[in-house]
Amino acid sequence: MTLKHALAELPYGGAKSVVMLDGPAPAPGSPQRRALFARFGEMIARTAGYYVPGVDMGTLLEDMQTIRDDGGARAFCDEVSPSPFTARGVYRAMRAAAVHHHGEGGPAGLHVVVRGVGSVGAEVAQLAHTDGARLTVADVDTARAQELARELGGDTVAADEAAFHEADVFSPCAIARSSRTTTSRASRHGSSPARPTTPSTTPAAPRPCARPASPSCPTSSPTPAASSSARRCRRMERRGDPRGGRPHRRAGDRPARERAGARDHPARGRPAAGLHGPRPGDLGVSSETAVRHYYDLVDAGDVAGVVACFADDAVYHRPGYEPMAGRAALTDFYGGERVIADGRHELDEVVVDGSRVAVHGRFVGTLKDGSAARVGFADFWVLDEQEQAVTRHSFFDTPAV
Fold first, then answer.
1. pTM assigned to the model
2. pLDDT per residue over 325-362, tens digit each?
3. Which of these is catalytic: 3, 4, 9, 16?
4. Is 4 marked active-site?
């Protein structure tokens, strides 16, 4: 997930979480299941939005709703299932590989084996069927595989034999790591000689970025030709992303106050975070990371996440408003009083001095009256040991916002 998010330039780190149980999971809709995910939500709420769960294996939309409603934590995929979108991504990759190996017809007329026909695999099989592929499906739930095969006019094979079944394309859509070197090699040996197997999950070798080798850019190498990887690295460098260009601080470089606060905070440990951190080796979230994350959240319209960036007794000073003291006042402001409709913050400089952070940049967006806004700003933050704002002062180069 980390690599996927990095390639898509999404502002999340791709972390996962696991709920360990002594026995089978409580049944969907049961009070026991709701209580379990409420407790889980309360635990991750302590990360103040730096870790956001979503639907994955063994969880449901209603579980995310419980995390949100009963646990007080932010959750993705709490209203819309991501499975159809995941399936489209898998199938687009499969189709591109088939076109590359077999021509413009793509999967049409090819034999496609899909292992795992849950919410993602069944959709992949349906898309392949629509494109004219000949299907064989497999699942540990044999009845489910047989039902789908009847619906699509395909065949079935035992789940543990699917990787070795003669095919042109093998698509593992079950648990992770079900396609390894041994199974890929066996799949190729079992494929028809006229049309070699195209494993849909075999990754292409990454293209190095076209810039001199640098320890601050993990994909760099001395390659003369320009590439999309090079452009991506340059964009990262311009916006201060730790994966490109600008060196980041190691844990040992952080002020003692920050290191102590990270150790003492009950929710620290190694929380999953967004685009800007924590840095490798950090025990907690740095002051710069916390402040940058605020702007990500406010641009996304996440009122709960924004308010969680402030301490309970925080005070926000903003031109044109009375001082906003406490989270209730902040919720009223970000939830309705703020004259901004939408837009983004572009940060030119972030300066950290212990618990104090100064930010200079501009806001580009639209006000609620429909007018466009492009406003320079300077923010001055004071953070506590949990990296939450105690005070914030904002200044603008125009009174528009």
1. 0.45
2. 999 999 999 998 899 988 999 999 999 998 999 999 99
3. 16
4. no
